[in-house]
């Protein structure tokens, strides 16, 4: 029968074919097609024949076609057909779909919608036909019956899509359905509807199905709504990551969260690749991505920035046109994140309002960790980001070429944290990815070599960490290391030392690298440049320290773990140690040649020998012999000869140039330290026969030092020709020589002081010798200071480095510390014997200065050791402290000690008050307060105590007042907002200084007795204004955050419906802060402040206040509904600003200008005829009134936006605003004539200044 139909279709006319088909039942015809298709026969000819004999113009033919379409769709979905057969059927159905009438197209489409909703589609192959049907329907001009009415083809299509997207989708068909819509012409609204439906389906799919769906969604997004698609993808994976990290699962993502993390990372990597590929094809997608993530910077970073979006951004850097923009965005986000964190850590007010979110640095390091899952497309971006952060935010060179590094994490600036993050990224990437290691190392080495003039300590630290992690791995990169060694002679000394220290573990595992270094160092030893020879010494000393000879003692304070290399070396430790002996002795021979070179080279050698001895004790004999022989050249062996040193031999005269030849003080210091260490450690000897010889060296050196001590004490300054009559000027050869010799003598005295103290065991005779040596040192020091003071320059008074070692200082301080602590806390300054004073300072005050410096040094340089330090101080049992108490408990005990001392000082007679002592106590308390946990009762107690002291004690000392008030503010901001404190202080200042209107009688408040007539301005006033500025910064930050959140939550077309108040608690807090701060400014602008910094800063802070009020008004313009209005407390704030601040600001401006006019007039009268004095006064007046126009502009901007808000909120906010007469610049001629007649005898310069002041606001008025 099929042959019959096909043969009839071959005829020229279709009449017989139509008759034949009409005679057949539709079901029989459909079965015929099905049988042929299932058997694998080509159904094309039969289908074409059926379509030819079933014209859509006839109802029967159209219905027959519909029946065939229905059966064909079921056939394709059944899975019984071969792939080629199914494709042929679908192709023919697509070709004929446009000839269907609209009503049948609707029926066909409804069949698809029904099949999708009822999950009847088995493979979704037939869905390829749906876009053709929908497109055909959209092109129908005539109305089509749909439901109970008639709609146009376009509207039918819209309804079908609406029905389809509102219903349930079978998860097996989601990808095909998404692909369907990309071929259908859609309106913007329909695109959005489909996008939202697809995004909702993400959570219902298996994880492996997500990447192809994302790809189809991205292709579909080319129709529009790219932002929504990207935002949905990022949000989905962000939530998934968050739930996975918290080890929790929500109902919607239950199936996904239970998959292994590794599988999720692979899926994320594939999705990122799809997005990057789509961005390469559609640049608008990339622009939308950047726009979306940049918008997040204004609000909460964590809403948009997450590990997934960071990984995506880093992958997008492979697209050249977006590379720079992406890195700029990441840099800005990183610095902003650290700044936000710093702001939050310093304010309890912000901590209570803003939840702590994960820092962006944590997210980026999470990306590094995740990149192990074949994220090669992310790795390159990570490396580039790491180097960009280190290059941009590394230490900068300051004027004297040095850099300032801070060790405390709390004191680091955001840019320093950003640099540290860059180093962490590179180190972690190096650990994970072998393929990228070579590139990282090359870039680090290149920066070390090419940026020698810039600070590169951060790169050297990174290099050290990399090599410490895997020295064996670096053997494959040894060529780059040896290439870098070739530049050692041309690098600054500190760079060479840092580089060699960093590569030290590599030298132990790679003989070739070590040999290359030795060759370079030997060449450098004889280079013409001094720095090259110093670098050679530094390199050789490093080698001696790290290649131990067999039998050397380990030094706990110098031991260094070198990770994997240690294992490698220990395997051959016996061989290595024996070989090292010959190696080290060769180096010692090379170093002995340095003893004939310049002083700087010798000095480096002496500084290095002691470290070598501690690390490599078997070299003790060689080092001690070398030092003793060198020392004997400058030592007078006869015991009765004074002075005992040949200082002349230490100075070299080359023509008119006098310079130091032998740094004798450094030589003696090195010898003394080496001797002390050998005696203390009882260094064993290499060979029995050398024992006697080595003991002789020790004894000979001890005898030499004893003789030196005795004869130095006996020697007078005249013996050195360094008495008061000597020439110490820097302009003559004799003067330069005497300065050098004096420096040497003082250094020798210091060395002998330490030597004798170390062997004294606190015996009276030895300590007397120490004091005698100190008196010799002091006499010479006083002479030098006196001579330097008389000279024109201060170059001679430059302080030399001390030769007292840290061990000596620590031993001395250990002995003195408890004495200092006990003496100060037990014997008040007021009862101390007045005869025991030196330079006006009591012994107790000196004790306190010592304590303050110790506390400060521990906190600044030894932060990790603070718990041990406090534990060492101890706490009496009766205080109830635990033996192993926390830092807070131990610090609180010390706080109480010093609180007691300050109370004793304040409660004593006024004439006994010592401002310096009080300030030191406050400084110590400030340092200790930083160790208290802000949430602890001890912290609250200290805040209450400090507040009580400020309220009840009145002192005129400005420095003490400033220190105490700073302490109060620093504590207060960590407990709650200080705005009420600022208001009370402002009232006190106003009451003390008086009103700008002299006729007003002030009611003096007395909240804080510490605020007196002397301390109110500028001391307390400037502190209040500084703190007010910080409060304004916090409020500004909050408003910016709110604006960002609103702009993220609002869609442009939904601006009127999406704008309910998003964060009432934050808004209320902002308004309360500004309201209270406004009352503080209300007091200050009425205060008769003295001219100068107080007025300048108050004007600037007022300007900032109005700028932030304007920002708040603009925020409400953004969120205000036309029907809803604004909060009542916002209305109250506006009313308060109009009644209590704006009018007073104009009055204050008039007060300032009148005061300046009077000042200029009096200056002109006093200095008549002195144009320079008048000009100076005019310039000062102009400078001090410069902020006034800015303030007036800020007020007017505030009022301008208030008018806009009034219109939008239907609330008259301007009823409390009164335009000031200060802005009325109408010129009254009669008054002007009277003024000119009265001032015609005044100085011309002063008059022109008045004229300039009158004209400037008028110009501003015209601009408006």
Briefly say what this structure is.
Residues 284-370, 555-784 form the FANCI helical domain. The chain has 1264 residues and is mostly helical.
Task: Please characterize this protein's 3D structure.
Helix 7 packs parallel to helix 9 (about 155-165), helix 21 packs parallel to helix 23 and helix 36 runs antiparallel to helix 37. A hairpin with a 2-residue loop joins strand 3 and strand 4 (about 655-660). It is built from 54 helices and six strands. Among the domains are: about 225-250 and about 260-395 and about 410-435, no CATH class; about 595-680 and about 695-790 and about 800-815, no CATH class; about 820-830 and about 840-875 and about 885-960, no CATH class; about 985-1045 and about 1065-1160 and about 1175-1220, no CATH class. The model is unreliable at about 250-255, about 405-410, about 555-575, about 790-795, about 835-840, about 875-885, about 1050-1060 and about 1240-1264 (pLDDT under 50). The longest helix is centred in the C-terminal third of the chain and has 34 residues, at about 1015-1050. The strands form three sheets. A two-stranded antiparallel sheet has the order 1-2. It has a two-stranded antiparallel ribbon with strand order 3-4. With about 1250 residues, it is mainly alpha-helical.
């Amino acid at each position: 029968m099929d042959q019959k139909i096909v043969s009839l279709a071959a005829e020229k006319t279709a009449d017989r074919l139509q008759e034949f088909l009409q005679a057949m039942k539709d079901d029989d015809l459909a079965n015929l097609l099905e049988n042929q298709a299932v058997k694998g026969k080509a159904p094309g000819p039969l289908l074409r024949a059926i379509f030819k004999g079933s014209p859509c113009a006839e109802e029967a033919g159209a219905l027959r076609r519909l029946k065939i379409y229905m059966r064909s769709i079921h056939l394709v979905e059944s899975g019984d057909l071969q792939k080629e057969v199914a494709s042929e059927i679908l192709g023919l159905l697509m070709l004929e779909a446009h000839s269907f009438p609209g009503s049948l197209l609707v029926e066909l489409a409804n069949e698809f919608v029904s099949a999708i909703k009822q999950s009847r589609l088995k493979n979704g192959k037939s869905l390829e036909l749906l876009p053709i049907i929908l497109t055909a329907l959209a092109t129908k001009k005539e109305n089509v019956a749909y439901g109970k009415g008639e709609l146009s083809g376009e509207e039918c299509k819209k309804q079908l899509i609406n029905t389809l997207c509102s219903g349930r989708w079978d998860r097996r068909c989601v990808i095909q359905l998404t692909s369907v819509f990309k071929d259908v012409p859609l309106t913007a609204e329909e695109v959005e509807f489909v996008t939202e439906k697809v995004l909702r389906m993400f959570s219902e799919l298996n994880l492996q199905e997500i990447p192809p769906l994302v790809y189809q969604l991205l292709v579909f997004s080319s129709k529009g709504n790219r932002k929504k698609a990207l935002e949905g993808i990022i949000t989905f994976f962000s939530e998934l990551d968050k739930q996975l990290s918290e080890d929790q699962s929500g109902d919607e993502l239950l199936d996904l969260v239970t998959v292994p993390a590794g599988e999720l990372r692979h899926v994320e990597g594939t999705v990122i690749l799809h997005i990057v590929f789509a961005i390469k094809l559609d640049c608008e997608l990339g622009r939308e991505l950047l726009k979306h993530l940049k918008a997040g910077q204004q609000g909460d970073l964590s809403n948009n920035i997450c590990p997934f979006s960071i990984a995506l951004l880093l992958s997008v850097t492979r697209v050249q046109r977006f590379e720079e923009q992406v890195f700029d965005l990441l840099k800005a986000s990183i610095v902003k994140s650290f700044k936000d964190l710093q702001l939050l850590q310093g304010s309890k007010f912000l901590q209570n309002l803003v939840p702590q979110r994960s820092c962006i640095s944590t997210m980026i390091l999470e990306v590094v960790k995740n990149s192990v899952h074949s994220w090669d497309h992310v790795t390159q971006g990570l490396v580039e980001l790491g180097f960009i952060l280190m290059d941009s935010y590394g230490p900068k060179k300051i004027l004297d070429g040095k850099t300032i590094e801070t060790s405390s994490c709390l004191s680091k600036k955001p840019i320093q944290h950003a640099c540290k993050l860059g180093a962490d990224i590179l180190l972690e990437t190096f650990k994970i990815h072998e393929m990228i290691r070579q590139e990282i190392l090359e870039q680090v080495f290149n920066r070390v070599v090419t940026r020698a003039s810039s600070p590169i300590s951060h790169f050297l630290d990174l290099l050290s960490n990399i090599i410490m992690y895997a020295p064996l791995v670096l053997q494959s990169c040894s060529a780059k290391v040896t290439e870098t060694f070739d530049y050692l002679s041309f690098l600054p000394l500190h760079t060479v030392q840092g580089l060699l220290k960093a590569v030290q573990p590599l030298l132990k595992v790679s003989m070739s690298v070590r040999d290359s270094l030795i060759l370079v160092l030997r060449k450098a030893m004889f280079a013409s440049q001094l720095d090259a020879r110093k670098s050679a010494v530094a390199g050789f000393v490093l080698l001696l320290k790290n290649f131990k000879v067999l039998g050397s003692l380990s030094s706990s304070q110098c031991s260094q773990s070198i990770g994997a290399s240690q294992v490698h070396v220990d395997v051959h430790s016996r061989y290595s140690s024996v070989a090292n002996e010959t190696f080290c002795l060769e180096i010692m021979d090379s170093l002995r040649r340095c003893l004939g070179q310049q002083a700087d080279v010798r000095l480096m050698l002496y500084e290095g020998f002691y470290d070598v001895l501690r690390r490599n004790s078997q070299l003790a004999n060689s080092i001690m012999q070398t030092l003793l022989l060198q020392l004997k050249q400058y030592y007078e062996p006869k015991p009765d000869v004074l002075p005992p040193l040949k200082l002349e031999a230490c100075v070299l005269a080359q023509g008119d140039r006098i310079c130091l030849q032998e740094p004798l003080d450094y030589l003696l210091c090195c010898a003394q330290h080496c001797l002390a260490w050998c005696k203390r450690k009882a260094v064993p000897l290499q060979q029995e026969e050398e024992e006697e010889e080595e003991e002789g060296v020790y004894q000979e050196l001890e005898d030499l030092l004893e003789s030196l001590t005795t004869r130095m004490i006996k020697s007078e300054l005249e013996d050195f020709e360094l008495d008061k009559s000597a020439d110490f000027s820097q302009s003559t050869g004799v003067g330069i020589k005497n300065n050098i010799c004096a420096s040497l003598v003082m250094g020798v005295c210091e060395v002998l002081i330490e030597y004798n103290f170390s062997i004294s065991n606190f015996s009276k005779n030895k300590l007397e010798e120490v004091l005698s040596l100190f008196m010799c040192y002091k006499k010479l020091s006083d002479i030098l200071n006196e001579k330097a003071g008389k000279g024109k320059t201060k170059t001679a008074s430059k302080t030399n480095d001390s030769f007292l070692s840290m061990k000596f200082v620590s031993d001395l301080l250990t002995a003195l510390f408890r004495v200092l602590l006990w003496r100060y806390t037990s014997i008040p300054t007021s009862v101390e014997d007045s005869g025991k004073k030196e330079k006006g300072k009591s012994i107790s005050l000196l004790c306190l200065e010592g304590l303050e410096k110790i506390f400060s040094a521990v906190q600044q340089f030894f932060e990790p050791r603070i718990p041990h330090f406090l534990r060492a101080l101890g706490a009496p049992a009766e205080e109830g402290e635990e033996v192993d108490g926390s830092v807070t408990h131990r610090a609180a005990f010390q706080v109480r000690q010093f609180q007691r001392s300050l109370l004793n000082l304040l409660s004593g007679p006024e004439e006994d008050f010592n401002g310096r002592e009080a300030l030191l106590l406050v400084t110590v308390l400030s340092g200790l307060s930083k160790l208290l946990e802000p949430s602890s009762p001890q912290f609250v107690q200290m805040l209450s105590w400090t507040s009580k002291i400020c309220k009840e004690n009145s002192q005129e000392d400005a420095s003490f007042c400033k220190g105490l008030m700073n302490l109060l503010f620093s504590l207060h901001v960590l407990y709650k907002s200080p705005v009420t404190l600022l208001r009370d202080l402002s009232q006190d200042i106003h009451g003390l200084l008086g009103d700008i209107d002299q006729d007003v009688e002030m009611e003096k408040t007395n909240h804080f007795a510490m605020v007196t007539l002397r301390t109110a301005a500028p001391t307390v006033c400037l502190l209040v204004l500084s703190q007010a500025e910080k409060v304004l910064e916090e409020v500004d930050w909050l408003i910016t955050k709110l604006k960002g959140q609103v702009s993220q939550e609002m869609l442009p077309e939904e601006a009127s419906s999406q704008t309910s108040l998003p964060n009432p608690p934050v808004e209320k807090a902002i308004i309360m802060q500004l309201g209270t701060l406004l009352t503080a400014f209300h007091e200050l602008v009425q205060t008769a402040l003295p001219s100068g910094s107080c007025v300048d800063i108050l004007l600037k802070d007022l300007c900032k206040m109005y700028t932030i009020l304007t920002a708040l008004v603009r925020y409400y313009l953004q969120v205000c509904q036309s029907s809803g209005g604004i909060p009542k407390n916002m209305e109250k704030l506006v009313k308060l600003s109009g009644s209590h601040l704006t009018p007073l600001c104009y009055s204050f401006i008039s007060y300032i200008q009148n005061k300046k006019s009077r000042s200029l007039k009096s200056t002109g009268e006093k200095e008549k005829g002195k144009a320079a004095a008048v000009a100076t006064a005019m310039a000062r007046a102009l400078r001090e009134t410069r902020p006034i126009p800015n303030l007036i502009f800020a007020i007017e901007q505030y009022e301008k936006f208030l008018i806009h808000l009034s219109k939008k909120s239907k609330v008259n906010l301007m009823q409390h605003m009164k335009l000031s007469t200060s802005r009325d610049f109408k010129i009254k001629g009669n008054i002007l004539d009277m003024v000119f007649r009265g001032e015609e005898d005044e100085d011309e310069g002063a008059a022109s200044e008045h004229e300039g002041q009158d004209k400037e606001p008028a110009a501003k008025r015209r601009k408006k």
